[in-house]
Write a structure and sequence with these properties.
399 residues; alpha/beta; Rossmann fold; 13 helices; binds cytidine-5'-monophosphate
Length: 399
């Protein structure tokens, strides 16, 4: 799996740097090409000669080579790599990655790299527990970087607790998993709907809902990480996602979402409909702002088309289709009914009864039910983990 894969290993100035030699050995043994880039502080902890000998490549640490005066092109390094690992990741480099600071070769390469990035933080107990560290890690995660959390144990300071870099064998396993998964959706073009819809009442008001779009965006992110082409059709949201294989289409209303979905679904291998679509819209949109006058105001609503059901009716038999259901009573019974009625392959159920699940949260608690009567309850996780669980469940079954 790793044969011929090109890995940039960024090493920063933490005591755990001495363990990186073992990771290089494991990667090389499996046929990977490894190029090491050191931050200036890393050289105090691990010798460039050791790394050059183990990797069989020159070790990079300056923008230019002090012996022959030649420039090291960080853009070429960034393009060369299939994967970049930063281990150990110190609090200092973490903060630079979170801010986009490029004052050394490793950081300039990180900012130029097009490939996925995995980091393994390592720092002392209190530094790891500091809210700034948590914020910076969160920021990285939002940029799609995979984080291997620090582990509990004895720290170089003599303290004991969380902060130790994950063992080289754990990092190696994550690298193997990454390459195994990164091709698992390679032949798929997946349409994902996300976010709420806004139904205009007049030029300044609308009927909407509290959907943040986070679940749909997490699904898109994981699908991209696993090699799919993604068409993301989203209602109004603050969520951001950038990727070469992503086509994002922003819509406001259900009717606009309906048009966009029908326009694009034909060329897709499947779809996941995570949008919280408004079931009704005002029968008419007032041309001018409605002024207040009477004590009560009535707005007539008309039913919106069910986008998912309409795709369920028209999809070809090779296309797979997944819906979401947010249920408050008899959740499984209602979700199964929807699965059948809308001609789905599976449905992802979340209930508002579970704390931390549903609208607006960063976490979700889901159950996936499929058309063959299988079901799986997942624990409360981040929406990103929930997205991974959904794809793990679907891959090999339908996808
Ligand atoms: O019937 P219900 O609204 O509970 O179904 C939820 C599922 O149907 C979600 O996957 C949602 O994205 C989709 N849906 C849709 N168009 C609608 C209503 C719901 O695509 N008008």
């Amino acid at each position: 799996m790793l044969n011929g894969k090109r890995v940039i290993l960024g090493i920063t100035g933490g005591i755990a740097a001495y363990k990186i030699s073992f990771l290089i050995r494991m990667l090389k043994k499996q046929g990977a090409e490894v190029k090491c880039i050191l931050t200036p502080a890393a050289k105090d902890f691990v010798s460039p000669l050791t790394l050059a000998t183990l990797s069989g490549e020159p070790v990079y640490h300056y923008f230019w080579n002090r012996e022959d005066g030649r420039w090291t092109n960080h853009v070429d390094l960034g393009i060369w790599a299939d994967l970049m690992i930063v281990a150990p990741l110190t609090a200092n480099t973490l903060s630079k990655m979170a801010q986009g600071n490029a004052d050394n070769l490793l950081m300039a390469t990180y900012l130029s790299a097009k490939c996925p990035v995995i980091v393994a933080p390592a720092m002392d107990l209190d530094m790891y527990a500091h809210p700034t560290t948590a914020e910076n890690l969160n920021r990285l995660e939002n940029h799609g970087i995979q984080i291997i959390p620090a582990e509990e144990g004895f720290l170089a300071s003599g303290l004991e607790g969380k902060g130790r870099m994950a063992e080289p064998s754990t990092i190696f396993e994550r690298v193997e998993d990454h390459f195994a998964l990164s091709a698992s959706l390679k032949n798929q073009t997946i349409l994902i709907t996300a976010g709420p819809t806004y139904e205009s009442i007049d030029p300044v008001r609308f009927i909407g809902n509290y959907s943040s779009g986070k679940m749909g965006f997490a699904l898109a992110e994981i699908a991209l990480q696993r090699g799919a082409e993604v068409i993301l059709i989203s209602g109004p949201t603050q969520c951001q996602l950038h990727h070469d294989r992503l086509k994002r289409i922003d819509v406001n209303s259900t009717l606009e979402m309906y048009e966009a979905v029908h326009h694009h679904f034909e060329k897709c291998t499947g779809g996941i409909f995570a949008a919280a679509v408004s079931d009704y819209r005002p029968a008419t949109k007032a041309e001018q702002k409605i002024e207040k006058s009477e004590k009560t105001l009535q707005i007539d609503l008309v039913k919106n088309p069910d986008i998912l059901a309409s795709i369920g009716e028209s999809k070809s038999k090779n296309q797979w289709l997944i819906g979401f259901a947010l249920e408050t009573e008899k959740p499984e019974v209602h979700a199964r009914k929807k699965l059948q009625k809308k001609n789905l392959d599976a449905i992802v159920l979340n209930t508002l009864q579970d704390a931390g699940a549903g609208f607006g949260h960063d976490t979700n608690k889901i159950t996936v039910l499929d058309k063959d009567n299988n079901s799986h309850n997942f624990e409360l996780t981040s929406k990103r983990e929930a997205a991974k669980n959904i794809f793990n469940f679907l891959t090999d079954r339908f996808v």
